[in-house]
Amino acid sequence: MPDSALSGKTVLVTGGAKNLGGAISRDLAAAGARIAVHYHSPSDKGLADETVAACVAAGGDAFAVEAELTSVTEIRRVLDSVTGRYGALYATVNTAGLARGNPMTEVTEDEYDAHFAINSKAAFFVMAETAKRIDDGGAILNLVSSLLAAYTGRYSVYAGSKAPVEHFTRALSKELAGRRVSVNNLAPGPMDTSFFWNAAAPGEEEFSRAQTPYGELTKVEHIVPWVRFLLTDGWWLNGQTVFLNGGFATR
Ligand SMILES: NC(=O)c1ccc[n+]([C@@H]2O[C@H](COP(=O)([O-])OP(=O)(O)OC[C@H]3O[C@@H](n4cnc5c(N)ncnc54)[C@H](OP(=O)(O)O)[C@@H]3O)[C@@H](O)[C@H]2O)c1
């Protein structure tokens, strides 16, 4: 349904072609927003094109942009393509991320660097480059993880590389003082997408389900309404991390 608060507004969704990012792109487009659908792997071009088509069919406008976001040059290129096309930027929803669930003794240097490159460095510069271009009154949202509130093994490098984003968020929310830009994180619980299944160990699904009073994994549908809310009526939340996990973990 069109939403007057989002109609005609421009939103960059990193990782916006599939899974959670794909659902966010579609939902915001249905509210009338213009969406820059970022995707990473060239093999996802078809998915990105489908998401763009769905956004347009839903009543918004959209275009797809491929990029490797661990490069600051690429981040600038993406953001310049957004403002070049739409002339403004109301919000960035940064869903890009990487997770492999390995014990610390098995994490390689390359895996460590890859996690910090996308989960920390890319998040930092996506936020910073967004801040240089964003409209007054806009919003920046990062996807982090409910593992930031959990006490567990196997995800040291994933959770550890998401943790700095909370500090980036606090700092930027203060630095944007006077511009009414809200900067926040959403922290889903273990979520039923390929991202979870690629990282999960045998038995992890059952364990994760058992940790919530509802006995379910998080679904993208549980997260999407929060994105729309924080980009509209929920703007008063600032500098925070919201744990969205059906009771999996709290902090
Ligand atoms: N699923 C879960 O259990 C869960 C739980 C809590 C939080 N989260 C967070 O939620 C967000 C979305 O996850 P999802 O479940 O929807 O999975 P997803 O679709 O795999 O989202 C991750 C996105 O990041 C992109 N990406 C990875 N490396 C990149 C790079 N170097 N440069 C640019 N983009 C890159 C991926 O593209 P490629 O696939 O092409 O590499 C993908 O589009 C992630 O930030 C994740 O950490 C997920």
TrEMBL record:
This is SDR family oxidoreductase. Belongs to the short-chain dehydrogenases/reductases (SDR) family. Pfam families: adh_short_C2. It comes from Actinoallomurus spadix. Residues 9-193 form the Ketoreductase domain. It comes from the Bacteria. Keywords: Oxidoreductase.
